[in-house]
Amino acid sequence: MRGTRAIIHLDHLTWNIGVVRKIAGSERLICLPVKADAYGHGAVWVAKTALKAGVRYLAVATVHEGKLLRDGGIDAPILLLSIPLPEEIPDVVANGLIPLVTDQEFAAALANAAKAAGRQVQVHLKIDTGMGRVGVSPDKAVEAASFIKSRDFLVYAGTATHLAVSESTAVEDISFTKQQILRFKETVDSIKKAGIDPGIVHSANSGAVILHQDSWFDMIRPGIMIYGYAPVALEAGPLTGNGKEADLRLKPVMELSSRVVFIKKVKKGESISYGRKWTALVDSWIATIPIGYGDGLPRALGGYLSIKIRDNFYPLVGRICMDQCMINLGPETDIKRWDEVTIFGGKSFTAADLAEELGTIPYEITCNINKRVPRVYIK
Ligand SMILES: *Cc1c(COP(=O)(O)O)cnc(C)c1O
User: Fold this and answer.
1) Which residues are designated catalytic?
2) Which of 4, 265, 306, 327 could lock onto 313 through a cystine, CB 3.0 to 4.6 A?
3) pLDDT in tens, 346-365
4) For 318-332, b where at least 16 C-beta lie within 10 A, e where not — what string?
C-alpha cells in the first residue's frame, strides 16, 4: 500500500454516535447520511459500524450509492435524499430505497415502477419549508400526502424537511430556523387533520441537533457531527437539549497521513516547485511528501498548510503539485526518510482547521480526499 492513506477511526465514529444519543435521547431514531461515500470515509464500513452503534436509518444522495450499500450487505432502511431520473426509478424499487418524494409526478412514476415490480415502496414526503432546494410547498402538502396514500403500491412512511441555517447562532438565523420548524409542524398537523398518518417525522441535521431541540421530532439526521466536526462554534455550546458543552467532544474520524519519501539539502537562493514561488533564504532541508491535489488535497492550501512529523509542524513550501508536495524541515533536522507525517486529523490540525483557512467547510475537505487514497479502517 502506498504511504499516503486515510486512516478511518471507526472507534471515533462510535464515540460520536454516543455523543449524539446522549444529546437527543437514546430512544430517538437516528438516520446517518452516508452520501458521497460517507463524506469520504467509506460508506459500507461507516454504515456497518453505525448500525452496530444504534443508528437505524441510512441516507444516500444517489441510487447508485444505495445500490453499493445493498451490494455491501446492508439491509437497513435507506433514505434517498436527492431526486432520481425517471430511468433510475426501477433501481430505486429494486434496491428497496425510501425516496423523499417531492411532487405527484415523481410519486406516480414510483407507484408505476412499484406495481411493475410487484412490490410496495415506502416513501417519505419532503416539505420545502425554506431551504429552497427540493420539496413540496406547505400549502400543497396535504394534496401530495393524499395522492401518496391513494396509490396501492406506495406506503406513506414519513414526512421530512431540511433546515437552511440551523448551525448558525446569529439572531436572524435562529428566528428563520424557528419559522421553518413552525411551518413544518403546522404542515404535519394539517396532514394529520386530513386523517393521514405522517409516519416518521424528521428535520434535524447536525446544526439542529446541537441548537434546536424543537426540530428533533421522531428521527434526527446528523451527518457532519458523527464524522467528528461540530458545525456550530463550540464556544456557543448547545442552546437546548440534554447536551452540555462538555458533551460535544466530538472526535474527527478521518486522519490523513503520509510518509517522507525524499530529503535533500537546498542552498540559499534555490527554488522549490512549479512557478518558483518559494526560494530558500538560508540553506535548508526539504522533504518531499507523496500527496497532491490529485489525491484531493486542495491546491489552494499551498502557503497555509503545515504538516506534522512527530511533535513539530513543518510548513509547505512552493506549490502543491498533482502527486507531491514539499515541506521545509529547516537548516538542521532529525527527520528521516520514510518518517510518518500527518496532514490532518490525529494529533495535528483537523479538517475543520484547514477548511477555515480556505473559507470552506470540513465536509468539502473530507469528501474531496479521493479514491487514490486508500482507506485504512481502525476499530
Ligand atoms: C446531508 C444532509 C443531512 C446531514 O447534514 P449535516 O450538516 O452533515 O448534519 C441531513 N439531511 C439532509 C437532507 C441532507 O442532505
Assistant:
1) 35, 274
2) 306
3) 999 999 999 999 999 999 99
4) bbbbeebbbbbbeee
Q: Domain range holding 348?
A: 254-378
Q: Are residues 20 and 73 in the same domain?
A: yes
Whether 223 is in the pocket of ligand 1, judged by its Cβ within 6 Å, is yes
Atom 10 of ligand 1, residue of closest alpha carbon: 205
- Residues 310 and 199 placed together within one structural domain of the fold: no
Residue nearest ligand 1's atom 15 by CA? 81
Provide the pLDDT confidence category of residue 304 given band limits of 50, 70 and 90.
Answer: confident
* Confidence at 248, pLDDT banded by 50, 70, 90: confident
Examine the domain organization and report whether 204 and 271 are in the same domain. Answer: no
Q: Is the CB of 206 under 6 A from ligand 1?
A: yes
CATH number at 365 reads 2.40.37.10
DSSP one-letter code for 216: -
- Cα 55 to middle of ligand 1, angstroms: 15
Indicate left, alpha or beta for 187 from its phi (over 0: left) and psi (-120 to 50: alpha). alpha
* Same domain membership, residue 44 and residue 149: yes
Q: Which residues contact 359 (CB under 8 A, 6 or more apart)?
A: none
Work out the pLDDT band at 75, boundaries 50, 70, 90: very high
pLDDT tens by residue, 198-212: 999 999 999 999 999
Q: State the distance from the centre of ligand 1 to the C-alpha of 221, rounded, in angstroms.
A: 6
Digit-coded pLDDT (tens) for 233-246: 755 444 444 444 44
For residues 54 and 202, what is the distance between their CA atoms, to the nearest angstrom? Answer: 17
With respect to residue 212, please indicate whether it lies within any of the assigned structural domains: yes
Rounded to 5 degrees, φ, ψ at 229 are -130, 125
Q: Which of 17, 184, 205, 361 to mutate to test the pocket of ligand 1 (most atoms within 8 A of CB)?
A: 205
Residue 227 forms part of a structural domain: no
371 and 322 part of one domain? yes
